[in-house]
């Protein structure tokens, strides 16, 4: 069963990668990966790299919720959370459209899911539908609904089916 969204994208359920998934890779990617690994090892213990990675982790987590329209949060507060850390005390009244505690819980879920993705990649695990469902459950642990559009084109809030 597929559905066309307003943007014209044809939605389909997620399926496992084909058995010949290695054929999808680009030959030059392995040489880039080798250079990346050398640079990573050289910079691994650098404090500035650790701080950069933590800021990037927080930014990805915050922007995920914004892109998915789970919440809105003003740019200044976003920047403050990226720089200082995810802390409810840093979110002023009116900076988001959701209760601050709920936003912080969702951000922590997204950070945890991101950590899990990095661990998944580092362990070279096989990407499966089951893993994607687990990831969805982790990312949406504190999310109660998802926005949708009814048959008349009106926006509606639907109960979120975690892992589906």
Give an overview of the whole structure.
The two termini are 14 Å apart. The strands form two sheets. The chain has a two-stranded antiparallel sheet. It has a two-stranded antiparallel sheet with strand order 3-4. It has helices at 27-43, 47-67, 75-84, 100-122, 129-139; strands at residues 3-4, 10-11, 145-149, 155-159. The model has no long low-confidence stretch (mean pLDDT 86). The protein is mostly helical. The protein has a domain at 46-159. The chain is flat and about 50 Å long. β1 (3-4) and β2 form a beta hairpin. The chain is built from five helices and four strands.
Describe the secondary-structure layout.
Blueprint: E1 3-4, E2 10-11, H1 27-43, H2 47-67, H3 75-84, H4 100-122, H5 129-139, E3 145-149, E4 155-159
Antiparallel strand pairs: 1-2, 3-4
Helix pairs in contact: 2-3, 2-4, 4-5
Radius of gyration: 19 Å
Query: Can you give the mean pLDDT?
Result: 86
The total of helices stands at 5
Write down how many β-strands occur, each being a DSSP E stretch of 2 or more residues. 4
Share of residues in strands: 5-15%
Structural class: mainly alpha
List keywords for this structure.
single chain; two-stranded antiparallel sheet; two-stranded antiparallel ribbon; 4 strands
């Amino acid at each position: 069963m597929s559905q066309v969204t307003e943007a014209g994208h044809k939605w389909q359920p997620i399926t496992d990668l084909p058995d010949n998934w290695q054929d999808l890779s680009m030959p030059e990617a392995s040489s880039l990966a080798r250079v990346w690994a050398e640079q990573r090892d050289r910079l691994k213990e650098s404090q500035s790299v650790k701080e950069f990675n933590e800021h990037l982790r927080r930014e990805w987590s915050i922007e995920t919720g914004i892109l998915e329209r789970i919440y809105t949060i003003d740019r200044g507060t976003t920047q403050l959370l990226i720089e200082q850390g995810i802390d409810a005390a840093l979110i002023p009244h009116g900076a988001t459209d959701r209760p601050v505690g709920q936003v912080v819980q969702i951000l922590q879920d997204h950070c945890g899911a991101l950590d899990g993705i990095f661990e998944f990649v580092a362990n070279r695990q096989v990407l499966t539908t089951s893993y994607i469902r687990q990831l969805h459950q982790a990312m949406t642990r504190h999310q109660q609904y998802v926005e949708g559009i009814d048959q008349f084109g009106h926006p509606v809030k639907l109960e979120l089916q975690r892992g589906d």
